[in-house]
Amino acid sequence: MVDGAFVNRNYIGYGGGFSGDVKPAWFGWTKDDIGFSAFAGDGIGRYAGGGGSGNYFPYLETNYGAPAGTNIANAVGNPLGYGHAGVAPTAAGAKDILARTTPAWGGEIWYQHWWTPTIRSTAEFGVTHEDINRLVGSSTSNGGPAVTSGASALNKEIVDVHANVLWSPVPFIDTGLEYLWTHRQTIFNAKGDQNIALAMFKLKF
């Protein structure tokens, strides 16, 4: 965590994952495919995969940059009871900084079925969870403090499901329909769902 003025701290993150792909060949469906992946780590940030991947994932949680006097424990419902107020980005405030790497885990599984040689469907389920519930702030990808006022938009958990039907009348054309459902929970436990229906036409060259 480096702000170019008052703070220069190093933190170690770690993580791991695995993925696989199986062709069950049941019922004579030789082209059907099952895929899966899972990951877990601490401080892995944007390297988190699984459901909801592509969203903003913080490397660190910190009270640095929060409005002075903000009770971080009350604001986030901190189970460990950090009673420390927000720390303004000043030399005097640097000594009161709290920070920790963000634990995360997730995974996804999908199944693809070929109805005919040119028509296929894929169904997928994925989840990504992060333990963002102790400190309001977060570090950006370059290690500096993020804008704490946006902390309420940080995700604690993303769950997504999608299913589609695609047709490839010739190898260089894909067209079809897809349905996507996503459930989101923020660090303040605000929850919301979205439902999206898509139509696609893709020309590959």
Characterize this entry briefly.
The protein has one helix at 72-76; strands at 14-22, 33-42, 60-62, 99-101, 103-114, 119-130, 137-138, 155-167, 173-186, 191-203. It has 205 residues and is mainly beta.
Tell me about the largest β-sheet. 7 strands, antiparallel
Shape: elongated
- Quaternary organisation of the protein chains: single chain
Total domains, how many? 1
Computed over alpha carbons, the radius of gyration is 22 Å
| Count of helix runs | 1
Separation, N- and C-terminal Cα atoms: 44 Å
Q: Give the beta-strand count.
A: 10
Walk across the major sheet and give the strand order: 1-2-5-6-8-9-10
- Beta strand %: 35-45%
Low-pLDDT residue spans: 67-85, 136-149
H/E topology pattern? EEEHEEEEEEE
Which class of secondary structure composition applies to the elements? mainly beta
Helix content: under 10%
Average of per-residue pLDDT values: 75
SSE map:
Blueprint lengths: L13 E9 L10 E10 L17 E3 L9 H5 L22 E3 L1 E12 L4 E12 L6 E2 L16 E13 L5 E14 L4 E13 L2
Antiparallel strand pairs: 1-2, 2-5, 3-4, 3-7, 5-6, 6-8, 8-9, 9-10
Describe the structure.
The protein is mainly β and 205 residues long. It has one domain (16-203). The protein is 2% helix and 44% strand. It has one helix and ten strands; from the N terminus they run βββαβββββββ. It has one helix at 72-76; strands spanning 14-22, 33-42, 60-62, 99-101, 103-114, 119-130, 137-138, 155-167, 173-186, 191-203. The strands form two sheets. Strands 1-2-5-6-8-9-10 form a seven-stranded antiparallel beta sheet, with no helix packed on it. The chain has a three-stranded antiparallel beta sheet with strand order 4-3-7, with no helix packed on it. Strand 9 and strand 10 (191-203) form a beta hairpin. The longest helix has 5 residues, at 72-76. The chain is elongated and about 70 Å long.
